[in-house]
Specification:
Elements: H1 2-24, E1 34-36, E2 41-44, E3 51-56, E4 62-71, E5 83-89, E6 98-104, E7 112-118, E8 129-135, E9 141-146, E10 157-159, E11 162-164, E12 168-169, E13 171-175, H2 181-205
Antiparallel strand pairs: 1-13, 2-9, 3-8, 3-10, 4-7, 4-9, 4-13, 5-6, 5-8, 9-12, 10-11
Length: 206
């Protein structure tokens, strides 16, 4: 009788671990990083405002939207250190519904690289287009752009002279972090072993 109980317990542990292993080998839907990382020039943000980038959402949740920002006029007053991005639904710029706003302050002098704006608070619809529009009220900042080459098929840049299907800003959309499959597997295995231990304790008490 004791031998039979021992075999049942071993089987329970093996079943929990087997389920955990199977779960770990399943590849869940992976978040899609959108990254257009080339440029052939830059636009002064204020001069070409409204200016931004249309993209097609690959994930319902994102961490941030970033643009490659350059310091055009560091000595021109006012020498502001702030930038603002508005996120609109649709592919027509600021004429869409405003769904989110983000600011970055204390941009360093001689900025020449990506600045990421936090949009972790918004929810997107996968496959739908959105417009991320930069806002600057000084001549300080510029945004890098790739002209005459369509490197990103999911969208296009927008400026005050319209939009071009063969032009994109240098930008990126970083998806929200997704737990690794092993994390779920470890959680499942832990819960299974916890259940076994509780059951074993109950049987021992009888």
């Amino acid at each position: 009788m004791k031998k039979k109980k021992r075999l049942v317990k071993v089987y329970s542990i093996a079943r929990c671990l087997g389920i955990a292993f199977a779960f770990a080998t399943i590849n869940p839907a992976q978040a899609g990083l959108i990254f257009q990382d080339t440029d052939s020039g830059a636009y002064q943000i204020l001069a070409y405002s409204p200016i931004g980038q249309v993209f097609t959402a690959e994930d319902a949740s994102i961490q941030s939207i970033g643009f490659f920002i350059e310091d055009f006029n560091p000595t021109f007053a006012p020498t502001d250190h702030n930038l603002h991005v508005n996120l609109y639904s649709g592919g027509s710029g600021s004429s869409g519904a405003l769904i989110g706003q983000a600011n970055v302050n204390n941009i360093p002098d001689d900025q020449d690289g990506y600045i990421d704006f936090d949009f972790s608070m918004v929810s997107l619809t996968v496959g739908q287009k959105y417009s991320a529009m930069l806002v600057d009220d000084t001549v300080r900042w510029g945004v890098a752009a790739q002209r005459d080459i369509d490197n990103y098929a999911g969208g296009y840049s927008i400026t005050n002279v319209g939009h071009a299907g063969n032009e994109d800003l240098r930008f990126r959309v970083i998806p929200a972090a997704i737990p690794e499959p092993k994390t779920y597997a470890m959680l499942l295995a832990g819960l299974g072993l916890l259940g076994f231990m509780l059951r074993h304790k109950k049987e021992s008490a009888v």
